[in-house]
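S2.1 Query sequence (Glutathione S-transferase C-terminal domain-containing protein)
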Amino acid sequence: MTGQEFVRDTQYIGTRITRDGRDGFPVEAGRYRLVVARACPWANRTIIVRRLLGLEDALSMGMCGPTHDSDSWTFDLDPGGLDPVLQIPRLKDAYEKRYPGYPKGITVPAIVDIPTGAVVTNDYPQITVDLEREWTEHHRPGAPELYPEHLADEIDDVNRGVYTEVNNGVYRCGFAGSQDAYEKAYDRLFTKLDELSDRLADRRYLVGDTITEADVRLFTTLARFDAVYHGHFKCNRTKLSEMPVLWAYARDLFQTPGFGDTIDFTQIKRHYYEVHRDINPTGVVPVGPDLRNWLTAHHREDLGGRPFGDGTPPGPPKPGEVVAPENGVPLNG
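Output structure tokens follow.
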């Protein structure tokens, strides 16, 4: 890592899949494939939202492995190293199909047009919003309203601060190019985490009394905090498990169907510790932390709230989309 402060490139492929197809890509069940990696927090958001809304039958999902080289995410979890639907070994192939010589990073999540094999979008903040707003015809009965119109402005406001200070803030700490840049990033991160603790002290969820897009976006960073960001990215003022309000909030969500059952701690740790050799030159992956505390009582239900509003929890994950038991939280000692 060279330079001083880590600055994320946020110029993504902004094509949208919409009900009216105004960008040339109408919502259509079975036409698109969501490509993700369980290790990636940005992709993890789409996995959660797709599952909560019950879009599994309308939008198939391809899974990249936890590690990648400087060139591309790869489908090394699949037989023969090929995505079974797209029949490509590297996600880069779908980017190149749309934009030959694509000059930017190959990122997940991405949605690929199956008939052409070309990527449609990798604009991850917009992808989940469009799944919530544009794909409603394909939502399951009882799907929760994750981005309700009357709360949209407040959700957007909360999301802006969570993104700059927390979601991206941990990376700003980890990839800081100087001591000064690191300390500024560290202060910003924990100032925001303290603010979020205060906000959540007397309310179960970030906005309103149900789970929304805002909770999904914060959760994927919190789920990785103790396993990766505390040590690997030097976000070490306190562990998540030492911040009582945020720790209870995170456990509440983790124990909610659609959240914790998408978290693969083994893949998460492998990704960060093996790929970021500039930070961890040996590639050694730590054995800890002990994950069993994720299943302890949180008592957040005492604050009220209705996780799914007038909706219902999603059913179990689809076969083939279940996190391997050895990669999740141990259910016993």
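Residues 4 and 178 are 5 Å apart (CA to CA). The chain has two domains: 32-138, 151-327.
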